[in-house]
Amino acid sequence: MTATPGDQRWSEALLQVFAAFDDHLRLERLDSTHTVQAYLGDLTSLFDYLSGEGISTLDNVGTADLRSWLAASHRAGVSAATLQRHTATIRVFFRWALLRGTLDTDPAAALRSPKVPKRLPVTLTLSEADDMLQSAIAYAADTGGVSGIRDVAILETLYGSGIRVSELAGLNTTDIDFERRTVRVLGKGDKQRTVPLGVPALDAIAHWLEVRPQWANKRLQRANPLDTNSNSATTALFLGERGNRIDSRVVRRVVHQAMRAVPEAPDIGPHGLRHAMATHLLEGGADLRSVQEILGHSSLATTQIYTHVTNERLRAAFQQAHPRA
To answer: Could you tell me the pTM of the whole model?
Structure first.
């Protein structure tokens, strides 16, 4: 178990159950690193609060204690969305503790999640998406550099497939099927799915693969021949300038830089391109189930937010254009 901010004040019982829950998330549920960190961060906050209240074991935790912790978080300025996540985390945690026999009753069962106002995701119009890609292509052509060619491939792949930034960073060269025009993606919970990929994205990837050895060879030249893991990045589709597998932060920087070239377009990141792709699919007539499968959403309700986006656009267009709107 990694050290936590308040673990010096925690009892041995809380430390042990924290470590067991950590193992459950990573080894049994196979949650992503980001999800595990979010769960453990919320649990750390709760355990800090309980320890401060003199509570050292889970069987001494009641529903009132959990409500007091949430109320203290609210007074500290935590948003409704974060409070909702706090509530979801402790529900998962205490349900797990109940099922493993650590507790006889679940003190979180009676909690209600705070309502969070729904906000429609900011996205691009079709023309803004096209302007962004054309600007990146023009820049790559002007500079003739490897980075420009790679960045075009990244942008085309993100917008063309709607995959997450972590999924793109995890792609290998063998995941692209040029004949079937698909990309194989390893998503949340290690669930694999196959996503269609358009011709512009495939062409951009093919162009990148032609110049990719210029960066891949840099890593090979630095590799220690005695290190069996030294070539672990050689299968990565997208690389950084030193020849290592690309970092998600670099991908975000690439997207933000590309968006700055489009006047009045929203400053979105990789997830914004995912929103744009889904919205444009639905505006083009794709059915909701197909979009759900492409995005890798476990619930159709998650995908339905994009129907609200398209409805809002239709309403705005009607108000602007219809003489009797």
So the answer is: 0.63
